[in-house]
Amino acid sequence: MFGRIGAGELILILAIALIVFGPSKLPEVGKSLGKAINEFKNHANKISEEVKIDVDSDNK
After folding, report:
1. Cα 47 from chain centre
2. Family assignment (predicted)?
3. Tally of CB atoms within 10 A around 37
4. Among 25, 33, 35, 55, who pairs with 21 as Cys (CB 3.0-4.6 Å)?
């Protein structure tokens, strides 16, 4: 049902972001978004490692 974002959708999102934040704030917003995504991925990886360790210890 939900797939990847296509080129048209990406251009539309970037145009809206440019209008909302303006050209001077856009790099700052992108940097913050990148940090947030990276932090989310790190926490998700830690949680999946903890779950894997718990499952492995339960199976022994």
Report:
1. 16
2. Belongs to the TatA/E family.
3. 10
4. 25
